[in-house]
Design a protein that fits this description.
This protein is an alpha/beta fold. The protein is built from 15 helices and 10 strands.
């Protein structure tokens, strides 16, 4: 079981030829909760009131068999993650390490983006990253940030580059001004926020989707449809959500601080949902959920930047875009 996930887990080919594992371990709110994070207390409750360090969690996840680690500047724990990787003793070529640059650095410009990539390389104790993303499409700034990633890719410091939280219009803007088509768009994907038009648009252009909040932060585990489908297959609600994700061809990034949950979350490749299950799960996205997503996007594209909450931010931020 502690063999390499790179061989045991299915992979997907990215548009640049890289093989990307279909499941990874998320490090957000693992051992550290960012000051501007929402629902900060949830992470404490999930940890059972005890503080488990990112170092311990990462070592445990690698022991269980995860090989793709999803990191970020914003998560504030990359140095600890680096120690966890080193403690594991797993060879670098067996790992798939990904990170993202935060809005504050994106806003500052290309030099700040480069400095952050170099910082992440130092913190994770590696000389290259398998994947690096622009975390949010900061208006007027994200294209230049991506161009710096293109330069870093050309230098060999990053193998694959991509984006996160981009709507179709952001991707159109980016792709008209850059030369490397993003390999990844990491967005929230789950049955309660299933944005078909966006997923289809990305697929048609060779952009692979990674899902965050595939497990809806555990808030969907008691949903009647999820519970019914889980009982039908003798699986847990988390496994139903994870299987739905990978069955859609979306890369799945669960997170947990508990070994048994880490193992449970990975067990999504040896069974399948039937067409009836998929139809029932697909129908869980409501207009209210789509509107909540729209409001979150508008709030977050300038979050932690000097213009956050200002009339300038409101003027620069898209108000009309593809929500579905």
């Amino acid at each position: 079981r502690s063999g390499t996930c790179m061989s045991a887990c299915p992979t997907v080919d990215l548009n640049d030829g890289t093989k990307h594992p279909m499941v990874g371990f998320g490090t957000y709110k693992v051992g550290f909760i960012p000051a501007s994070a929402s629902a900060a207390t949830d992470a404490q409750q999930q940890a059972g009131g005890t503080q488990v360090t990112a170092r311990q969690c990462v070592t445990l996840a690698l022991e269980v068999g995860y090989r793709f680690l999803d990191c970020a500047q914003f998560y504030g724990n990359e140095k600890e993650v680096g120690h966890g990787i080193k403690d594991s003793g797993i060879e670098r070529d067996q790992l798939f390490l990904a990170s993202k640059v935060w809005t504050s650095s994106i806003y500052e410009g290309r030099h700040a983006v480069r400095q952050q990539v170099l910082q992440t390389l130092a913190d994770l104790q590696t000389d290259y990253l398998d994947l690096y993303l622009v975390h949010w499409p900061v208006p007027g700034k994200h294209v230049e940030a991506y161009k710096e990633l293109e330069a870093l890719q050309a230098e060999g410091k990053i193998k694959s580059i991509g984006v996160s939280n981009y709507v179709v219009q952001d991707l159109e803007e980016l792709m008209s001004a850059s030369s490397v088509v993003p390999s990844i768009n990491q967005i929230e994907v789950n049955p309660f926020l299933y944005r078909r038009q966006t997923l289809e648009w990305c697929a048609s252009r060779g952009i692979q989707i990674q899902a965050y909040r595939a497990l809806r932060d555990g808030k969907a585990f008691e949903d009647a449809t999820i519970v019914r489908v889980a009982a039908k297959h003798s699986k847990t609600p988390a496994q139903v959500l994870g299987r739905w994700c990978v069955q859609k061809g979306v890369i799945y990034i669960p997170k947990s601080v508990k070994k048994e949950r880490m193992e449970e979350n990975m067990a999504v490749f040896d069974w399948a949902l039937d067409s009836e299950d998929v139809a029932a799960l697909d129908a869980l996205t409501t207009p209210q959920n789509l509107q909540a997503f729209k409001a979150l996007y508008i709030k977050c594209v300038t979050r932690d930047t000097p213009i956050e909450g200002t009339p300038e931010a409101a003027a620069l931020t898209r108000s009309s875009f593809t929500v579905e």
